[in-house]
Amino acid sequence: MTDETRALLRTLPSLAGEPPALDLSALPEDPLDLFLAWLGEAVHAGVPEPHAMTLSTVSDDGVDARVLLLKDVDERGWAFASERSSAKGVQLAARPAAALTFWWQPLARSVRVRGPVVEAPPEESLADLRARPLEAQQRASPEDWTLWRVEASHVEFWQGSRDRRHVRVRYERAAGAGGHWTLAT
Questions:
Q1: Digit-coded pLDDT (tens) for 61-75
Q2: What is residue 36's predicted lDDT score, i.e. its pLDDT?
Q3: Residues 172, 97: contact at Cβ < 8 Å?
Q4: 136 φ/ψ angles, rounded to the nearest 5 degrees
Q5: Is 4 a member of any domain?
Q6: Residue 81: in which H helix or E strand, if any?
Q7: By the 8 A CB rule, do 66 and 128 touch?
Q8: 170 in any annotated domain
């Protein structure tokens, strides 16, 4: 079965999306601005669930990953929510750092975000819970519902190309609170 699977995987198309033009000479200084532009382009292009992302955390036995929805993004970070008692909540309590990965296949684009994770104030977590559909609210405990933010220290934008000349744009935050961003292409 391995030979058949390997052969099948080699026949599947890859990078079948149509990446929009990317002007490397006009990149913003802050990755948040580029992320919001790319997210807007994904929404405009009709990418299904463009706010879906893979959240990767660290557990006692290795790396753990799952798909969640982005709840908000601003200068404070990329926000997501769940129960504090969930596996991800326990993992974040033990090691408050995470990585997020967005994949917008129709545009052959991906964004990776890494950094420390902070818990939002209880009133913001409660507001997020109250914004969920009523049925979803009823399945969650308000005391357990938590909104977290990844305070990005690294953000990488990747644009695929059929000729395999992919473009990577990396932003890194200087150490210290409020550090400025450096850009590498």
A1: 999 999 999 999 999
A2: 98
A3: no
A4: -70, -35
A5: no
A6: strand 77-83
A7: no
A8: yes
Residue 176's region, left for phi above 0, alpha for psi from -120 to 50, else beta, is: left
Beta strands in the chain (DSSP E): 52-59, 62-69, 72-74, 77-83, 97-104, 109-119, 145-150, 154-159, 167-173, 181-184
User: Higher pLDDT residue, 180 or 137?
Assistant: 180
* Beta-bridge partner residues of 55: 66, 100
Decide if 172 contacts 184 (C-beta within 8 A).
yes
Identity at 11, one-letter amino acid code: T
Domain that holds residue 27: 23-184
First to last CA, the chain: 41
Q: Tell me the C-alpha distance between 80 and 55, whole Å.
A: 9
Structural domains in the chain (count):
1
Indicate the SS3 state at residue 132: coil
Give the position of tokens 């200084």. Answer: 29
Q: For the domain that residue 29 is a member of, what is the CATH number?
A: 2.30.110.10
Q: Is 82 a domain residue?
A: yes
Tokens representing residue 121 in the block: 């104030």
- Give the chain's radius of gyration (CA, Å): 18
Q: Residue type for 145, please?
A: W
Find the Cα–Cα–Cα–Cα dihedral 171, 177, 180, 184, rounded to 10°: -20
Read off the pLDDT band of 168 (50, 70, 90): very high
111: tokens are: 């964004």
| Residue 68 within a domain | yes
Q: In angstroms, rounded to a whole number, what is the distance separating the alpha carbons of residues 109 and 46?
A: 14
SS3 108: coil
